[in-house]
Amino acid sequence: MTFLHKITKKFSRNNSQNVSGINPSVISQQPTGLKQPAKPSQPKTLAELEQEIAAQGQVSSISHQKRPSKANRGIGTKLIWIAILIGIPAGVIWLANLPYPIIRRTVVQNAPFLLLPSYMSMEQHYRQALASIEQAEYLIEKPTSAADLALGEQQLQQTKTHLDNLPVGLVNDWPEYKYWWYDWRFSIYGLNAARRQVGQLEAKVFQEKNAQTLLTDNSQALLNAKQQYQIATTVTDKKSAIADWRSALDKLEEIPGQTLAGRTAQNQLDAYKRDFKEVVGLAAGNERVSALITAAQQFSWQAAKAGQNPPHTVTEWEQIENLWSEAINRLKQISSEDLVGYAEAQKLLATYESNLGQVKVRRQAEADSVQAFFMAQREIESLMASIPTDPKNLDRNRIISQLHGIINQLEKVEKGTTVYLKAQELLLSANNKFKQLQ
């Protein structure tokens, strides 16, 4: 308790001095003669001392808070002025570089150095456009795969983006502008050449895409036709699959050879044709042989039908002969490599050539018989005109000789010709006259 009373007295003494607002050091410096005898003070309790200490802490914290606020206000003011000093020139430069011809022309005439950001941007876009178009040209003109074409098209789009970012109005007004503080390498002629090259490369890419589409579609169609042929169970389905397969092969050959897809198709066609020959070759050959034999049989049927019910004139026999010749020509188109089809064709060929030979003989017989009949008729007319009206003047030997010539001509008329019956009538009459005169 004695220790606590000492501490309490010490705090109360210090507190009374600080609360009065007088510095203890100042009091110690006052003359001793002015000092008044201290009045005895009532000792404070521990609770009162704690309240006084808490009050002093609040006063100290308030004073510390007021001091930084003034410092913060000073820093904020400086930052605002710095922003104003930097923002105004930046805003002027931004305004001067706006993509409006009226603003830029005025700036170029009065303060061209303000357009330095525009010049730098133009130069950068121009250089990047040239670099991109070189890469695009190499990838598009000499592609090794579809990925090269895709990358080339991507580079081409980047080139167009860089060219579109160039201020055309400024370029047209000052195409060759140059300052000592900036080396201007841009050229309006180079820009126009780059744009033309971009257009040509776009056309090339379009052609390559179309060719690639044809290659993809027809390759898939070929694979589908092969699959359909392998699972086909009827002749009709097989013929349809073969037709689709051939159509796909033909379309692959039509892809332009100067394109990547065309070169790829040409490299694949040999394998595709070999596959087609191995899978479909025999069936396709049999189909062709069957078609040729069917056509030959049709011609032979028409020839046989036309040759029915003779006799026929020379013209009719010639038509029949042509039909047999067409049938024979169809059979001769069948190759000897197809053993089964060739053997069948040879059997029919032997029959058709025999029939053709008979038709030729009958045509010639018709022609000779008609000629002999007409000659006999002329001789008969000549004989009738030479007979005198007076029987006494009749020259029997001459008449017998003429009758003999007429009979010989009529005997040349063959059986089965169109003039045979008439010739037989005249021959009978001539023989009777000949017997009478002997």
What is this entry, summarized?
By secondary structure, this protein is mostly helical.
As a percent range, the share of helical residues equals: over 70%
Shape: rod-shaped
Structural class: mainly alpha
- Stretches where pLDDT is under 50 for at least 5 consecutive residues are 1-40
- The count of strands amounts to 0
Summarize the helix and strand pattern as letters: HHHHHHHHHHHHHH
Helix count, DSSP H or I runs of 4 or more residues? 14
Q: Please indicate the percent range of residues in DSSP E strands (runs of 2 or more).
A: under 5%
For the record, give the distance between the C-alpha atoms at the N and C termini, rounded to a whole number: 204 Å
Kindly provide the radius of gyration, computed on alpha-carbon positions and rounded to a whole number of angstroms.
Answer: 62 Å
Main β sheet profile: none
- Mean pLDDT comes to 76
Helices and strands in order:
Elements (H helix, E strand, L loop, with lengths): L1 H18 L4 H6 L16 H51 L4 H10 L5 H26 L4 H19 L3 H6 L14 H44 L3 H19 L6 H47 L7 H19 L6 H48 L9 H16 L8 H18 L1
Helix pairs in contact: 5-6, 5-8, 6-8, 8-9, 8-10, 9-10, 10-11, 10-12, 11-12, 12-13, 13-14
Brief descriptors of the model:
438 residues, mainly alpha, 14 helices, 79% helix, 0% strand, rod-shaped, disordered N terminus
